[in-house]
Input
Amino acid sequence: MKSKTHSHGGNGHDTDGASATGGGGGGGGSSSSPSPPPSPRRHSSISHCRRRLRPVKSISSRSLGTLAAGIMTRRSLRYFFLLPLLYISGLLMCVGPFSAFIGGPPLPGSVYRSHEVFRHLWPAMESDNSSAIVLSSVWKYKRKLREHKACPNLSALHHDQIASPGLNGFLIVEANGGLNQQRSAICNAVAVAGLLNAILVIPHFEFHNVEFGDIYNEDHFISTLDGYVKVVKELPEALMEKHNYNISNITNIRVQAWAPVSYYLGVVYPILQSEGVVRIAPFANRLAMSVPPHIQYLRCLTNYKALRFSSSISMLAKKLVNRMIEKSSRSDGKYIAVHLRFEEDMIAFSCCIYDGGKAEKLEMESAREKGWRGKFKRKDRIILPNLNRVEGKCPLTPLEVGMMLRGMGFDNNTSIYLASGKIYHAERYLTPLKMMFPNLYTKESLATSDELAPFMGYSSQLAALDYTVCLFSEVFVTTQGGNFPHFLMGHRRFIYDGHSKTINPDKRKLVLLLDDVDISWRTLKEEMEDMLSESDRKGIMVPRVRKINRKTSIYMYPLPECRCLQQSMADQIDQIRNSE
Output
């Protein structure tokens, strides 16, 4: 029997998959990772920009003619100067990206030359005996946090309840995507259940053949939310019998992406009251960021307290963190974690060109056809690899990450944890990175095959291991965006007193620097040091948040709303490391 569906507006577009790290941006297919949730759409402000015309009592025909001539003269002069500028701008925009097709020189930074730059710089890099940066003193900026405010208590939450008092029915959601898109869906589901005063059924995962309990501790989730949102593991027998023991028979509401509170109260709530149960599938990014404070608090409580990895994941993750600390004895147990998105499907999806020649071209065409079945061959799809690189949309290679970090001042004694799926042509592309950083580790090199065996083939569980090791690194490096770094940066802000401690490179600037095969090591170092300083400065930034008017993601910028849940950094780290 087909499921009943209620539709309201568009249901948005969710691009997501999962590699072994479950992160990164712009990917798709079996091993790609989720893109970061876009910011909620802003309402048009045209109405506020219109000038209100004042009525004129009387005006003579002569005066009217003079006025019209004056207006036309001013407009003509304005267009006289404006039109040439628009014409020149149009030429630059149109001709620039296509210059390679019309015989012009390639745009600066549009061609991958990093391997040539590395060959040129390696002798100077290897002989550089200047003092290395100390990991414990990388971050110079400190955030002055406001005093702790008490978290909303139960009576306040219930007093502010928008829906009617008393439980109104059951809410079922299906979380799609990789590890962190699922995490977003779970947090939003708790928020919606709190908004509607509904009982939340433990969320179902749409893909990857895993259940909630395979990744998260169900009992801890339920007990932490007790008193705020009631959570059950399954629907009551009576409701299951009513729907012939088939969840697809339950009314499914197709909710538009970033739906506001008013939609849930106006559309979902009446159905929940009349039928006693509703289902929302898919449920990625289906709630706006701007919600009442007590509902926002439920997101914080879920993300940072209720969601704890399952005991099997937690135990191995704790071992990996401790092993990285042991391997980093030269730097007082501190290490760098790099989220590298250089898997075959990620490169294929980006449509970027590296130094693999014809063989690479054939492999990428095959990967695109296998993963996206002709999507990239449509007549309306224009692929401009050179422009993608100039705009910073190409995944960084291991080589580029290595040169960037060495330029920032990290020496070859630095321990690096690599969070990644299967690297494209790993032996070839990882070799220069290992030359620059011999102390390079992955979950595969830190754990035994027996320890990893239960998780093999399950991308979300492998991503959870990477997530934990990255969370406790002194420096986290993101290279391609996506939900994985999106959530990690927010989580790190939460536990590190408001600082994300993340290197987020300016890839547009980086490709221009690595386009110059004659660049000196000194020049590159100066530029990379500036880039590190900029990441440091941005790491403490907190977007301005007005009440019920948040434009940015609370998962990436958890302060100030989640501030009341913060403990001392040492207590939080100890609590997470020792949790099972």
User: Anything to note?
Assistant: The chain is about 45% helix and 5% strand.
